[in-house]
Amino acid sequence: MHHRKWIWMVTFLIGCFSALINPAQAQSFAALEGMQIHANRATSSLLLYRGEGFQKSHLARMEQDLQTLAATVSAFPDASPELLERHQALQTLLREGAAFGREEDDMPWGWPLEMSKALRDFLTAVRSQQGADAHAELPAKVEYLTVQYLSRAYVGSFETAREQPDTYLGQDERRLVPAIDTQLAALDGKSDPAIAKLKARWSFLKVALEDMNSGNNSFNTASGRPFAPIMVDRHARGLSEQWMALSR
User: Fold this and answer.
1) DSSP letters along 137-183, please?
2) What's the pLDDT score for residue 185?
3) What keyword terms does UniProt attach to this protein (predicted)?
């Protein structure tokens, strides 16, 4: 336990020291983290809009998520042409999904796969500029798992990036839940009520995420209980907000 606390403290101090040395780099990482989070959130909002009866509040939330994402991308001076192109593609596709009619047949059968690909392609472009930063990606992992959960609850499938099995984009709850557990366990050495609240929220959320049953094509939860997409969405957003607040 003492060894783990020491590791966490060293990692935390290195991160703080690096931010002081290069605040521009720290700001860049924050922007790239935000892009991943807001892209996932916009996708979740679309799924809620279609899955929960086309409520105007969910459509408004999707538009707010897309605007926040666009602002984050626009404010990032080093955005590659690929990142800009894939951002535009994702934005266009999500708005297209919101415009389909209410009936099941109104949505082309292959559209959910297009949605999955557009999100993966954008997140891949963001990660190619960010590099591997597992610490910064914790909220993105939670939000990405939430997209998977809502997809299974509402449209039946979400295709992960099978060509990237070693990144979170190619993983589902079977690898991401343990990975998030490990990252949160490293916070044990920090005596802070905010950490306790963060971990309590995760303990509640991961029960639902572990029940997703991604390895089964029946699209039922592992326990047989109904999916709870609204609850998962709410707690995922709360957790990522708490994490970002701690990281600032």
Assistant:
1) THHHHHHHHHHHHHHHHHTS-----TT-TTSGGG--HHHHHHHHHHH
2) 85
3) Signal
* pLDDT at position 101 over 80: yes
DSSP alpha helix (H) spans, the chain: 2-21, 23-51, 56-74, 81-99, 111-130, 138-154, 173-185, 193-210, 229-247
Report how far residue 241's alpha carbon sits from residue 179's, in angstroms, rounded to the nearest whole number.
19
Residue that the structure tokens 């997140």 belong to: 123
Distance from C-alpha of 103 to C-alpha of 205, rounded to nearest angstrom: 31
pLDDT tens by residue, 43-60: 999 999 999 999 999 999
Name the helix (H) or strand (E) containing 214. none
- Token pair belonging to 241: 């907000």
- C-alpha Rg value of the chain to the nearest Å: 18
Give the global pTM.
0.87
pLDDT range class, residue 74, cuts 50, 70, 90: very high
Q: Report how far apart, in Å, the C-alpha atoms of 237 and of each of 41, 70, 88, 222, 233 are.
A: 8, 19, 24, 24, 6
